[in-house]
Model the fold of this input.
Amino acid sequence: MKQFFSVADVDDLSGIVDEALWLKQHPFAHEQLGKRKTLGLIFLNPSLRTRLSTQRAATNLGMEVMVMNMDKDGWTLETREGVTMNGTTVEHIREAAAVMGQYCEILGMRSFPKLQDREEDYSEDYFKKFMRYCQVPVVSLESATRHPLQSFTDLITIREHWQQPAKPRVVLAWAPHVKALPQAVPNSFSEWMCRAQEEGLVEFTIAHPEGYALAPQFTAGAAVTHNLDDALTGADFVYVKNWSSYTDYGKIIPVNENWLLDRSRLDITNEAKVMHCLPVRRDLELASDVLDSPHSLVIQEAGNRVWAAQTVLKRILEQL
Ligand code: CP
Done:
């Protein structure tokens, strides 16, 4: 593996999930692989799970880790080409990325969208420039449009909690929120589930209110409904997540129906397991009586972030 930006960087979806579950059983089997290799983690936005799980994964492989909170501790970067830097930016991404690549064998970066300009966010200009100029393999810790380590984790978690021969019915369910959130997690989850569906691993449905359709390049092959209860009927896994509108970009469109998943609503599912990437706002995005019930997989899911990151780092280290 040369980089990890999307599901397209994975040749063998089933194989990489098997590998992650094997590493979960044998976490130190490759503790020499990363010896004298350094992982740099660059954050332009906050993180709990991604930061700690990726550090833990790298440590299990024997790597050293450096973390930089670029938003707080770094220089303000310029990304435009050919401009005279006489404004607020201090350093160009050309130099900054190239320098970071001198210090690390692998870099990870998190860079959220601004949710102002859809074309700019979906061009992934910032991330792509960073990847080009740093000259070392880059792992996405969440970009403007995708969160692949989270989606890989989610597929691992579904596989781990599904022991039946029939394909599990997986539902991505929009949830309410008071803030406009990026589409990166649902885009990425949908992209991974559509690929898993193509490979016969799951049946996948997206449920969202009118006005919240995701970008079509992430949803090809998914069944889509505007009726949450229809989607929940017979579901085996429900992945709850809020996102802001893609069509009315970055906006919160008022929704009249009740989209909060609570315990009583799970009665129409097939005793579904409930997932969320976290952080979650209790009783706004997901009811406490679900989070505190045996239906919830959110803690196990967050735990699996280590094995997703460790598998990705292992595959990249093997190709250095
Ligand atoms: N799910 C997730 O990426 O969590 P953090 O934002 O805390 O890293």
